[in-house]
Give the backbone structure.
Amino acid sequence: MTAVSQTDSTRRVSTPPHTLGELFLGFLSIGARSFGGVLPSAHYVMVEQRRWLTQEDFMETIGLCQVLPGPNIGNAAILLGKRWHGLRGAIVAFLGLFALPYLWVLALALLYTRSAGSPLVSAVVTGVGASGAGLFTATAVKLGRPIVRKPAAVALIAGCFVAVAIGRVPLLVVMPLAVIVGVYCARTRML
Amino acid sequence: MTLIELGLYFALLSLLTFGGLSSVIPDMQRYVVDVKGWTTAADFMHLFAVAQAAPGPNVLFASLIGYRVAGIAGSLVALLGLCVPAAALTWVVSSLWERFRDSPWRGVIRRALAPLVVGLTFAAAYTIATPHTPDWRLWLIALATAAGTLRTRVSPLWLLAGGAVLGALLL
């Protein structure tokens, strides 16, 4: 994730999209330009280019979406679409966001399926997959750094990892237990 | 029948997707590969790689799994299954969140979830990079990419391209 530039925090004037069409095109453009991460392109389109949101608004919205389950930007589309144009706005923003990336990913999958069987393609695709795992590793390290000094946090990180990755325990079992322990630790200031 | 199973599974997963798709990738692999046998572990990893090379939210990976299982209908069912329950929850919570602006629960939830997301994201990395038995070459590519992300400002797309080159050379 690219760091969001701080110079924009001075911009306090924002004008929300007036029509559903404008909302759709804005989210279409977020989806289309979001190679390598959606957050930077969402910030560019909504804060810098179209000025739909101020920097503070953007951060607040993303902050809420990050504690809710579901794709963060997908949730942001729902939230902002609702705020500006009600249910129709939420649906339109969501469809705009996913339309082009969905077609793109299906086209890529078709291409891949056609060339499956070639050892070179298989090696390249496996390399990209392993590289994607590396991106996750980096994300986990970044998110883990601020909490790694707390023993309860380390125990929860290790517990979740071992149960899910090594033990292959269903997430439906692990998640509720981990949330209960996490909330208990957070309330007693161990986290 | 498969379509219903697919939709129900992803709808359930939707509400467990804290911190993005990475939290649920290990469980997706467990269910789709181990329990249902809909794809092989290698194919699962390849589809993940294809999704990485596309723009947009990485939940589109779910639509590729759906596509593999039940064609276009499967891809839509998986994607909507993964998004709609979470979207409905967002819809409901967005009004409550404002009301609880100063509630200490906001901080408690944030602090409680952080270690879970970290642990599950590590688990996702391990699951993707270990489709079968541990293979040092895949781990090397993953660690090189992680180091590139943490130590440099190179775009993730270039790092994925580096992974492609390393894959061609090593595998």
Confidence is low (pLDDT under 50) at residues 1-10 of chain A.
